[in-house]
Amino acid sequence: MKTFSIMDAAVAPFRLVGRRPLATIVWGLVLLAPGLMVFAAMAPVAANIFSGGFDPAVLESRADGMEALFGDDMAAMMQFQIWSNLAQLFGILSLLLVTTAIIRGVFAGRKGDGAFFLRIGMAELQVAVVGVAIFIGFCLVALIAILLAVAIGFAVWQVGDPWRWLVCVTLGVVIFLALVLLWGRLSLLAPASIHYRTFAFEEGWRLGKGKTWSLFGLNIILFLIAITVGIAVMILFFIAMLVVGGGLQATDPEALEAWVTGLPQQPALLAGMVVLLLIPMAWLQGFSQVLFTAPFAHVVQALAGLEEPEAVADKLH
Fold first, then answer.
1. Distant-in-sequence contacts of 245-250, Cβ < 8 A, 24+ apart
2. What values do phi and psi take at 267, rounded to 5?
């Protein structure tokens, strides 16, 4: 029986981002693009808010107060809402493109790709269909499990303490554990679809047979890595805010509020901060997606026995 190493799978994201640092940044930029759309659409509304455009006192002082609120200001709000909805659609598309690109990058081994493994083709359609099916199926299973737990909880509620609480807590733990175990198996379906070049529901599920607990352990390790990286990023961000915001004065809430509210009046500083932070934010976004995608692509590669990943990558569509 083929198996895989949990630690090899856990280090697969680090191996991939180390081998393809530029691709990681590009993947992050693709993922950030929808958010940047929202940020750009929000700029006029934010400028209006900071300038007091929606302040009731300001509106009352203007002869066209209510007309202005439901005129240009409301048009800006509607424009922002439209761009937000479009950004959500583009966000789903960017997630699909980057996910398939990461899987291709794992399968390709050391072989490069001029387009950073980004494609729009049949593989993306297959992963999209599998992803939608996983989302709907997982939500239905979770809903049924929760409703069943609630029914059992009501049935045992007449039992005295501490037994009813023990039953409720046990049900919660069992449901959570079952859903995590299920998610581990389902995580193989997308990379299996790219490997087998089909809607690999059966193939991906079969690859995880007998590996459920190993996949559970992998998910736990990935969660711990994500927590560690998140804490490190928060510390670095706080240090950067202290430096940019004027040293220890940034710890003063009033000084910090004054600095933040003054940013719209300093477009050059604001643009410089965005440019300065864009590359590290893009890398972090790309790494975050790699962290929860590459390990399962590695698992599929190991369990499916891909002896020539470069040749397989050439055939990917």
1. none
2. -60, -35
- Return phi, psi of residue 91, to 5°: -65, -40
Separation CA 13–CA 290 (nearest Å): 6
The separation between CA 250 and the C-alpha centre of its own chain, rounded to angstroms, equals: 30
Judged by average pLDDT, the poorest of 33-47, 181-195, 275-289 is 33-47
CB of 15 closer than 8 Å to CB of 314: no
Q: End-to-end distance of the chain based on CA atoms, in angstroms?
A: 29
Spatial distance between the Cα atoms of 85 and 259, rounded to a whole number of angstroms: 31
> In this predicted model, what pLDDT tens digit does every residue of 296-317 receive, in sequence order?
999 999 998 744 444 444 454 4
pLDDT digits (tens, 9 = 90+) for 247-256: 545 556 666 6
Q: How far apart are CA 310 and CA 2, in angstroms?
A: 21
Q: Are 290 and 16 in contact (CB under 8 A)?
A: yes
pTM for this predicted structure: 0.79
Cα–Cα nearest to 31, from 295, 293, 232, 234: 293
Distance (Å, rounded) from C-alpha 117 to C-alpha 27?
Answer: 10
For residue 132, how far is the Cα from the chain centroid? Answer: 16
Give pLDDT tens digits for 110-158. 887 878 999 999 999 999 999 999 999 999 999 999 898 888 888 887 7
Backbone dihedral angles phi then psi of residue 37, each to the nearest 5 degrees = -60, -45
Q: What is the widest separation between alpha-carbon atoms in the chain?
A: 79
What's the sign of the alpha-carbon dihedral 120, 296, 36, 30? negative
Q: Find out whether 227 and 212 touch, Cβ atoms under 8 Å.
A: no
| pLDDT cut 90: percent of the chain above it | 49
Structure tokens at 161: 């303490």
Work out the angle between the directed axes of helices 6-19 and 72-107 (0-180°, nearest 10): 110
